[in-house]
Structures are given as structure tokens and as C-alpha cells.
Design a protein that fits this description.
Radius of gyration: 22 Å
CATH architecture of the largest domain: 2-Layer Sandwich
Order of helices and strands: EHEHHHEHEHEEEEEHHEEHEEEE
Strand content: 35-45%
Helix content: 25-40%
CATH topology of the largest domain: Antithrombin, Chain I, domain 2
Distance between the termini: 27 Å
CATH class of the largest domain: Alpha Beta
Number of strands: 15
Number of helices: 9
Low-confidence stretches: 1-7, 17-43, 367-385
Largest sheet: 9 strands, mixed
Length: 419
Amino acid sequence: MKRYAFSKVGVALLFSVLSVMPPRGGFAASTLSKSSQAQKKSIAPADSKLIAANTQFGFKLFDQLAKQDAGKNIFVSPSSVAFALAMIYNGASGETQQAMAKALEVNGMSLQELNRANAALQAMLASSDPKVQLNVANSLWARKGVTFKPEFIKRNQEFFAAEVSDLDFALPSAPTTLNDWVSQKTNGKIDKIVETIPSDAILYLINAIYFKGNWAQQFDKSKTKTDRFTLLNGAKKQHPMMSQTGRYRYLENDEFQAIGLPYGAGSMSMYVFLPGKNSDLNKFMADLNAAKWESWMSQLRSQEGNITLPRFKLEYEVVLNNALKSLGMESAFDPQRANFREMCAASPSANVFIGEVKHKTFVEVNEEGTEAAAVTSGGMRATAFIPPFNMVVDRPFFCTIRDNQTGTVLFMGLVVEPK
């Protein structure tokens, strides 16, 4: 039996939508129905404008979180956040819609264009690589007795395959219902996203992504050795380090080394960026943006070399309110200024706004016994004068998981201390 390194990632994103409840009366009874899948329709190829927008948004969001949680391990899914925001965008109007469009970098795209592009992207991601498991799930959980506009519900069902359910939020079991859905969709990697439900909550929008991929080229477990990993403060810790030799997409300059480690048939890869010993993580992060990212992706070239990578397992949890406000979405969180009139038929004395955006992730990169055929790297050789590289990831690094077919960055993270 051969052993393969693999990566497992789970992510859940929770939007709680709150209402300033009217002093008397209330909303009419809801007429929502459960829907487990979108209406069948022809799906166009992924829209390059949406991919570019998501990339811009993802790196802006990550920059905010890197500042907010400086010195900590960070692992997020900008794709999960973008999908969930796009769902809620379908209920926005006026200033709030404009602010969300700017934050999401989708100015110039009509709502119909954005929805179709998201539907196409989800379909392409689901079929990107048959050897990689990537599941994207969306759901809307509405407080029983509250009326939501049919077009808002219909668009989220049709374009995001959102499961839509009425739920009595007053029931003690209501948080468990939400958490069970999250656990199921993340294969048990994230088992809780809701602790309690506020009395003024009227809707939860949840996006969950689960990823599992075997490396295209096996790691030999016998070569995994415990070695030193240098932390940000210069301290050394002993940690299991995996090693292998092969042909990879690789880039090296004065600032960093970068490598692409493919999963499955190669449609998806993990990209690891290791700041040079004469540089540091802070300088690398200061230079990190969407334009640089695209430039670096275009510069990666196939090259023979050696890679040493730590095994790691991380869990990350963050409330995204402040980060999203910093990107210009303040009005969406403001009880007085928020405008979600396309979502809910609120009375004149009530207003709907976003209460909390909670994001949780889990990632594990390690070795596990798996029966599978090894994918052999190409037999072409590098030109003789290009020496093999040696990349030892023994200090804090930046990494992503990217769908190479569409260019979508599914996950990105900073690993300052592998666990």
C-alpha cells in the first residue's frame, strides 16, 4: 500500500441578518419552501470578470485580516465569503448595494450577469477535477413567520443552489439544526457555527466549502523527519517535515521562493510562498496584492527540485464585520442606513441589516495511508544549465489553494506556527 500526502479543508461562513423589529404587529407569515438544488439550466463558462473581481476582493480581505490578526495563523476562504456576499447582494438596494458592489469589485456587472457568473463558477469548480473532492453548499434559514420577497428567494435557489428553509428560531434545537447542516456539508470538520440565536435575527445565510485532494505526486512517509521550524520571534520548534523531489511549477527571486504542488490530475494546486532569509513575512505581505499574484502565477515555470514542507493542521475563526466595514460596507451593518428592501418586506418602522459575519475554517495537510495510483510527473528534463532548486519551508509562509482551470483562489493562509 502506498501512502500519499493529502489536504483536507473545511470552511463555513455565517451571515446573520437582523431586523430592528417594529413595536407592534410584525411580518406576515413566510411562504418559503425547501429547495435542495437550483433549477436546471444551461451553465455558461466561468466569467473572467468575476474571477478577476473575486481575486481583487480576496486579497483585499486577506490584507485586512493579516493586519487584524498579526502574528497569528490565518486561513480563510475568500471564495466562500464572495459566494455568501453575492447571495445577500441579491437583497440589497441603494447605497448598500453600491457599497457592496465596490467591496466585491463587481461595479459594472448587472445583478443578472453577476448571478449567472456565480452559477457558472460553482458548476465549473464542482467538475474541475474528478480526482479532487470539492463541495460548495449554500443555505438560507428564515425565521418562521417572516415574509421574504419571492424574487430574492428564487434567485438564491436558481443561481446558488441554496437550500431554503423556515425555522422556528425560538426553539432550543434551532442552533443545533444550523450546526448539523454545517457539519454535514464540511464532512464533520466544522461542527459548530452558531452558539445562540439573537431574538431579532430573521435570516441566516450560510456557505460551506469542503475540499479534499490527494497530491498528484506522492510523499514518501519514510522521508518525513522532525526538524527545526523557525517562528516569527526567532525561536525554534521541532516539527515533522515532509520531503520529496520532482518537477514542479516554481519561481524564485530576491524576495521569495514559490512552488505549485498539484492535486489529483493537476486542475487544482497548493501554492506555497516562502519569504527569503534576507526578507521577511511583513515585507512579503506589504507587497501582496491581486496584481502581484497574477504576475507571479504567470512567471511560474516547470523545474526540477526538492521541496520540504511541514505537516500542519489549523483551525481559524474570525468575525468579519470590521474587515468588511474597512472595505467600504459600513452601511450594510448600520441599523439605520442599511437598505435590504429587495430581501424582506419590512414595515416602515423596521429595517434589515447584517448583524454578524462569522467565518470558520479547518485545514489539514499531512500523510495518510491511501490506495491510489501515483500520477507520474512528465519525463521532460530541464535544460542542463538550470540547477535543481531546493526549497525548505522551515519558517513562516503564505499559501493558497487555487483552481487552475478558472484561476479561482479557494483558500489562502499565513502559517506562522504549524500545529
